[in-house]
Structure formats: C-alpha cells, structure tokens
Amino acid sequence: MSNPTIRINPRQEQIIRLVRSQGYVSNEDMAQQFDVAVQTIRRDIGFLAEQGLLTRHHGGATPNSTIENIAYNERQILNLKAKDAIGHCAASLIPDRSSLFINIGTTTEAFARSLGGHRDLRVVTNNLHVASLISGRPDFRTVIAAGELRPKDGAILGAAAIETLDSFRTEFGVIGISGIADDGTLLDFDLNEIQCARTIIRNSRRVLLLADHTKFSRQPMGRVGGLADLMI
Amino acid sequence: MSNPTIRINPRQEQIIRLVRSQGYVSNEDMAQQFDVAVQTIRRDIGFLAEQGLLTRHHGGATPNSTIENIAYNERQILNLKAKDAIGHCAASLIPDRSSLFINIGTTTEAFARSLGGHRDLRVVTNNLHVASLISGRPDFRTVIAAGELRPKDGAILGAAAIETLDSFRTEFGVIGISGIADDGTLLDFDLNEIQCARTIIRNSRRVLLLADHTKFSRQPMGRVGGLADLMI
DNA sequence: GACAACACGAACAAAAACGCGCAATCACGA
DNA sequence: TCGTGATTGCGCGTTTTTGTTCGTGTTGTC
C-alpha cells in the first residue's frame, strides 16, 4: 500500500530549510554543518532534487522557487544586468510599509526581486511572476488582479484586472514600458496593457517608470501618456 | 469506533512531551533518560507513530506538527508520492479542451503538474502556484481569481475571489479538502476556503475531490458539504 | 585546447538501527 | 500460592544508513 512513514529524515528537512533561507549552500558546508560525509549530503541532495524540493548544482544546491527559475531559465531576459540595476535602484526609493502597484514587464520583475530587504509592503499587481516572487513573504500584503493570464509573460489583463486595479490607491506605481518616443510620449504595443498602465498611473500618488536604454529605440504605436503624467 | 481505553503509559506520555519540546530526540537518548532498553523505546515510538502522535525516523523521532502549524513548504513534502499518484489519476479523467476550476491545496497542485500532456484546457483557479505551473502553456486559457494572497500557501481568497469564481461555469471542479468525517462530511479549517470550495462546487458540472488517506484522520470544524453534493 | 583541481556516481564495507522470538519480570486477582 | 497476561530486556539475523575508495566527468585557468 502507501507507505505511512515518509522517507524524509530530520537532516534532509534541515537541508531544505537551510537552502531555502541561504539561497545557495555548498555540499561541503552542509557536510560540515551536519557533521556527516560529503557523500551523505550528496545522497540527500540527490533524493530531495528527485522529489522536486530543491535544485541540484555542481557543488551544492539552490532552492526551487519555481517561478524565479522559470523566469531565468525558460524566458529570454535581455539586459538582465541593467534591469537588475534599475530594479535595485528603484527599490531603494521605496520605504518600508509603503503601498505600491507593480505592473507587468521583466524590468518590474527585477524590481520585485530587489524587494527582499523591505518589510510590510502592500503590493497590488497584475503580474503573475511578481506575485509569485513575493508570495512567500508573510509580512507583505499582496493583492493579485483578476483575469486571463497571458502565457508569454504572466500578465493579467482585461476588464476584470482593471477593475481590481481601480479599487486601490497606492503611494507608488511601478511600471515598465515598451517604448519612449523622443518627445517623451510613453508607448506600448497592446491596448490592454495600455489601459492597465493608465489605471495604475491614475491611482498612484507617484509613478516610477522603469526603462532601460533599449526602450528609446523602439516605437510601438499605442500611447500610454506623456512623461508629464508621471509628475508628482 | 473510538476505543474507550487507549493504553498510553506515563513513559509514552513523557516521550511525546519530550519530543514536542526538543524537536528531535534519538532513541538512545530517550533510553538513557528513562532508564530502559532502547528496544522498549522503539516499541513506544512505533506505537505512538501508529497513533499519529509523532513521526518516526531512523534513530529517533520528531514531533508531528499539527495541521495548522505545518508550513507550506513542509506540507508540500507530506505524502508526495501519494499526492502525485492522485494528481496523475485525476488528470487522466480530464479530456482535452475541457474547462475546469482548480482550488487551493498541495494535492491540487500535484494535479496541475500532471496536466502536462493535456491540450487546450480552460482553467480558472484561485491558487497562485497552480497558475504559475500552467502559466507558460500557450494553448491553455488560464483565469486567475482576484484578491489577497495568503503567503503560506499561495491561496487567493475573499469576496473578490469568489466573485471571479462565480462568473464562470465549468465542466470540472477539482478541489482538495482538509478533512473528511466518517459520515462523508467534507471539512475545512477556514471559512474563506469553505466559501471558495462551495462556489466551485456550485459552478461545476462534475467535481473531483482529491484527498489522500491522511484526510480521514483530521477533523477540522468547518463544514463544506457532504459527499452527496459531489454526485454528478 | 590542455591541464589541474575539484566534484560526481558506483561499489563495497562498516556501523548503526531495526524487527522478531523468547525468556525473565512484574502486576494482579483467584 | 499460583496462574495469567502484559511489559520489558536480550540475542541474533536482517535492513538501513553512512563512510571510503576509486574511476569518470565537470569546471576553471592558463
């Protein structure tokens, strides 16, 4: 029948906890910490990875925060370094205990990843990956918008999403953009995205627009607004 | 059914207390502490584990955290094999091109993981992890419910979520449950969860209830419905 | 592109833990 | 006092876990 006693021993449980809290731990470190041979740790890691509880690497293991891995591995992220830097910089502008919208886009996801040091934020987002990234934070209050998912980037768009976004007012709106025209006009490809961005801008006291240099060379056709709309 | 005299001797009671306070205690330590042979401790541990009062391991025992206290990460690994098997089995009942609700719970997540071979499903869910799992599928149409995220398990609950769920009718409702009473009554801990489950049941042509054997030994207090509510 | 250092898996051996059967002990009432 | 049944301790063969060795594979550097 089904085995009643699950085959996970205390050490393996500790390993999961350790890896999840540290991000990356080497086999050597774990062997030392638990006072067992490296080979034993390897066996544990192998077993846990087989169960899908963490990810194996040469020399150690990392947690299996599903979405982050999907984000990095399966999706092409251009200018990762620049986006991380932008996200980090933007995050430093957000004080603890603030409320904020986070819109769709890979740059806003980088921003969300940089919120690790913040506390007690209240976040409203229509970005599935952002929601996943911060979903484990017990001190955050995270609201996700309703609606249909767009597979390619985890965006939640449409009338229902706008309705959700429209029922909140926040101190910050963090949005990305597809393109910026020479005159400062903000541009996007998709009407739904544009409407969501507008809703966020309308309901935020301040707006942080995250964009790297590539946005200046693109010229989508939809108009989100002018830079003037972002002024405080 | 409930046996009137369960024989738990003082030593066994002490063992439970000790394990609960220490986290992990080796059989050797306990044998020394109670001044009995290791064999006797083994018997005690075996008996107590059988009663579900603690968890047995090679060389010792750990406490059996109560359901509410089990963190999501740990819950995820409970009965992983059984949950995968259940999920796989349930997935085989779903034809391509169906529409379905997927509720919160680790078993429903296992189910979602088993949908890899399906095509063109339309899914409505209030489970962030489920949404993430299937978000990359370009042939699926995925709708996520609105509302506040519960960090411990990625559940989206509340009035907004119910409103989203209530605006769809599907062929299948896939739900988990916290406990099943002997008379078939479905039980849950949280009022919000119960309301979501009821909404899903109401709006589904057929309901698939995913539960492993551990659900029969738990007795939460909220009533979701009877097994009769699930009949086709 | 080659080499050194490190990490890995497989196989084997040692150690620890386990279960079972049986005998000794204890509790308790006839 | 004796018998009965439950509990405990011990011996021993079996299973599980852990450590070690060694040939192979991977990584990083020059």
Describe it for me?
Two copies of one chain form a homodimer. By secondary structure, the first copy, chain A, is α/β, with parallel strands linked by helices. Chain A has two domains: 10-64, Winged helix-like DNA-binding domain superfamily/Winged helix DNA-binding domain (Arc Repressor Mutant, subunit A); 74-229, Rossmann fold. Chain A is 39% helix and 23% strand. Chain A is built from nine helices and 13 strands. Chain A has helices at residues 10-22, 27-34, 38-50, 66-74, 80-91, 106-113, 128-134, 159-166, 191-202, and strands at 25-26, 54-57, 60-63, 99-102, 122-125, 141-144, 147-150, 155-157, 170-176, 179-180, 185-188, 204-210, 222-226. In chain A, the strands form four sheets. In chain A, strands 6-5-4-9-12 form a five-stranded parallel sheet, with helices on both faces. In chain A, strands 1-3-2 form a three-stranded antiparallel sheet. In chain A, strand 2 (54-57) and strand 3 form a beta hairpin. The longest helix of chain A has 13 residues, at 10-22. Residues 1-6 and 67-74 of chain A have low confidence and may be disordered. Chains A and B meet through helix 1, helix 4, helix 7, strand 6 and strand 7 of A and strand 2, helix 4, helix 5, helix 7 and strand 6 of B. The first copy, chain A, binds a DNA duplex (30 and 30 nucleotides) through helix 3. Chains A, B: It holds the Pfam family DeoRC. Chains A, B: This is DeoR/GlpR family transcriptional regulator. Chains A, B: Residues 8-63 form the HTH deoR-type domain. Chains A, B: Keywords: DNA-binding, Repressor, Transcription, Transcription regulation. Chains A, B: One of its GO terms (molecular function) is DNA binding.
